[in-house]
Amino acid sequence: MAAPTSRPIAPAKGTLGVLCVGLGAVATTFIAGVELARRGKGKPFGSLTQMGTIRLGKRTEHRSPLIKDFVSLARLEDLVFGAWDPLPDNAYESCLHCGVLDKHEHVEPIKDFLQGIKPMPAVFDQHYVKRLEGKNVKSGKNKKELAEALRKDIRDFKAKNKCDRLVMVWCASTEIFIVPGPAHASLAAFEKAMEANDPSIAPSMVYAYAAVMEGVPFANGAPNLSCDFPALENLAKEKHVPIGGKDFKTGQTMLKTVLSPMFKARMLGVAGWYSTNILGNRDGEVLDDPESFKTKEESKLGVLEYILQPQVYPDLYANMYHKVRINYYPPRGDNKEGWDNIDIFGWLGYPMQIKVDFLCRDSILAAPLVLDLAIFFDLAQRAGLSGIQEWLSFYFKSPQAAPGLYPEHDLFIQLTKLKNTLRWMVGEQAITHLGVEYYEYGEK
Ligand SMILES: NC(=O)c1ccc[n+]([C@@H]2O[C@H](COP(=O)([O-])OP(=O)(O)OC[C@H]3O[C@@H](n4cnc5c(N)ncnc54)[C@H](O)[C@@H]3O)[C@@H](O)[C@H]2O)c1
Q1: Which member of 5, 25, 241, 387 lies 3.0 to 4.6 Å from 98 by CB, making a disulfide possible if both were Cys?
Q2: What is the predicted pLDDT for the residue at 302?
Q3: Residues 85-124, buried b or exposed e (16+ Cβ, 10 A)?
């Protein structure tokens, strides 16, 4: 095989500003966690950029450096944080309100640092998130003007914090369900629609547009469209900006994208998959609104169809019944409980059942994803990659893919894709797991 060549990657020098849209449970758990890790008061478990290794060459070579030693990545020490939120709470107040981290062990010791992170006024409209009310909101005569105000915030933040580079991550609430239409088809139509205050332009799209126009990579942690339509995909390519989403893959869906490839690998059938959740944080409250839930439901339902391919295996999966529910249940706060009942069948059609009860912590699972996305989107930009970053599908429930391509959902295919992309960037051989070379079958 020909030796691969490396891509030029600008070194990760200086300060990386991470702009979070939304300063709620996920964003503050991420920001506080980075600061605690920097002070040696906690470890960044769950983060591939901080703890993951990458195998290089043959298994006999025993080369498996840490990813962060293999490719130039921004360090935790290099990160500074900014945010927008319609609620005026600073990161300290928000941390206490969200109640994810222990007040005495993890919040009070970094009180000053967290108090320094105050949300900039948001582009917000209750039409898109019915269960929220906020006063820390920008005003403007139309959405284009609001986008310009965000662009100014981005430039001001960069100058004030002496950032060398920026990334933006959507950590804000899930908006109502919107289907891409004529306003999303081209940049000209999109800009015109912003000027006309077209209701099909949601705030998340205004942020994504502002980021791309400022040359800032944009990652979308919620299931809203945000940058998942032709106008922004094309703009991102034109401006050489990496974009991607949607929806952090953290709990129940992560399990689905691990279990369902196993059924398919063993040719076991699935008759039904019933998933339900109880969740008591503000995200749960927002998702209690049927219009926001619809956006989340679409994102959660898609994975099984793509992985199990009922059209290829009709005997096994064509009659599968798949249901997803999210129930707002305040006493649990951020500690979500996700139940799955899976009805499978094997040899001669004999039925079996699997029950999964995942007692997880939503923001504890999501925070390391925000960190990795910020760091890898910055890497993508320094490596000259632009448009949709399919190699980062690993982090998303409904990954964006190029037009005409179906998304890859299997967690371990996604991980292989991610690591092979890193190898490819640096000029290392991709790993196929073929392995015949160890056995010399029929070779002289
Ligand atoms: N935690 C997880 O495991 C997980 C997984 C996948 C996706 N998500 C998504 O991540 C997002 C954040 O979750 P969370 O638990 O932090 O929710 P949260 O309600 O605690 O925080 C969201 C914040 O976004 C703010 N917000 C809403 N609209 C905004 C706007 N237009 N501009 C700026 N800020 C805005 C809200 O005021 C709130 O403070 C949600 O969309 C959620 O669905 C979370």
Answers
A1: 25
A2: 82
A3: bbbebbbbbbbbebbbbeeeebbeebeebbeebbbbbbbb
